[in-house]
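Consider the tokenized backbone below.
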């Protein structure tokens, strides 16, 4: 072996040794980051640097702190200055049920980001009388993820008929004990994903007041399970507002009152690969005179329940409303009186025909019907 070969071999060994030491150091820093996150401190390498609400005095202990709003506000102020997210770690109370952060009326601003640890619980101070976050007029690029949210009138309330909360993402949230999970006058270009409403009363998961427009939003993998009233409420306040190109993808409505309730005009509502099971009322489309409602269901699943014949439909259309329903499965095993199953209930004033194509009924001995309002003889679909 020549002198040059020896030098090259030592150089390669030195580089490999340096890389090995660096990797160990990085792994140690990542371990420190995980510990820092649990303790509510600022992190360094693995996670983007954040401002913890605990750094500003939030305790996560309702016995020791009945109002953490000021601490949250201070964390947001610092985070906005530095351009980093706010972090909410698990609470510090010795008793699990006390590890909550009570806050109210935090004003969202453009660019705000908030990440909650899985064990973090954010509540309002005065229950159903309070809103946790408020957004007014034009607020953009908000990111909120994680945590449990409970005991409030609404987690986020947007007010503003002409300017929207827009281009924002909300994900991985667990919601219970609220009047409205989210309440919006106007919403545009937002995405909601992996959000669970379950176990305790929720009057409305998403409440669109009708004061403004609701355009180009996606609701993906939202679960509504038991004691939920209406999952999606599109209200009407007497004025014609644009509600275009909204998508519900992979949502599940189980043992709740109603999945989708639309008043007023809506167009381009796409409902894709969603699941209904034991809902008490059909999806309802009720536009007033002079307005239209259009919806498309694709590859959805409806599971049956013990309903009396013709007393219940899965989709109810009134006024100038129409549905296109393509593909999907109807599973109907618990009927007390098999033989009649009304899927689509069409109002007598419907001006446009609806389309049903490719529905499959399994494990049922009934006939699928489409009924017109006031008719004594339903029309066989299958």
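A designed sequence for it:
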């Amino acid at each position: 072996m020549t002198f040059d070969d020896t030098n090259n071999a030592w150089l390669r060994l030195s580089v490999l040794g340096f890389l090995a030491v660096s990797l160990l150091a990085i792994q140690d820093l990542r371990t420190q980051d995980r510990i820092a996150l649990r303790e509510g401190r600022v992190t360094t390498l693995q996670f983007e640097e954040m401002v913890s609400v605990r750094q500003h005095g939030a305790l996560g202990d309702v016995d020791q702190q009945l109002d953490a709003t000021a601490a949250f506000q201070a964390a947001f102020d610092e985070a906005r200055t530095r351009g980093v997210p706010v972090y909410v770690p698990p609470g510090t109370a010795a008793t699990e049920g006390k590890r909550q952060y009570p806050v109210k009326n935090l004003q969202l601003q453009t660019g705000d980001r908030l990440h909650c640890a899985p064990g973090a619980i954010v509540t309002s101070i005065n229950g159903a009388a309070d809103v946790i976050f408020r957004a007014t007029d034009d607020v953009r690029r908000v990111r909120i993820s994680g945590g449990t949210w409970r005991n409030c009138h609404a987690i986020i309330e947007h007010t503003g008929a002409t300017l929207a909360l827009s281009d924002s993402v909300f994900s991985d949230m667990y919601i219970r004990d609220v009047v409205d999970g989210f309440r919006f006058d106007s919403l545009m270009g937002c995405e909601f994903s992996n959000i669970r409403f379950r176990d305790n009363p929720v009057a409305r998961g998403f409440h669109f007041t009708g004061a403004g427009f609701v355009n180009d939003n996606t609701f993906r993998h939202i679960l509504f399970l038991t004691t939920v009233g209406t999952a999606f409420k599109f209200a009407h306040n007497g004025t014609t507002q644009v509600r275009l190109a909204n998508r519900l993808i992979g949502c599940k409505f189980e043992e709740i009152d109603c999945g989708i309730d639309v008043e007023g005009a809506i167009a381009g509502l796409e409902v894709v690969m969603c699941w209904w099971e034991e809902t008490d009322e059909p999806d309802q489309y009720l536009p007033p005179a002079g307005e239209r409602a259009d919806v498309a269901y694709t590859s959805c699943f409806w599971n049956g329940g013990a309903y009396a014949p013709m007393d219940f439909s899965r989709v109810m259309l009134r006024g100038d409303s129409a549905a296109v329903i393509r593909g999907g499965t109807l599973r109907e095993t618990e009927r007390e009186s098999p033989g009649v199953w009304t899927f689509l209930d069409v109002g007598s004033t419907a001006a446009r025909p609806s389309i049903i194509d490719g529905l499959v009924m399994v494990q049922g001995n009934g006939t699928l019907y489409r009924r017109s309002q006031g008719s004594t003889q339903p029309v066989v679909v299958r």
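The chain has two domains: 7-101, 102-380.
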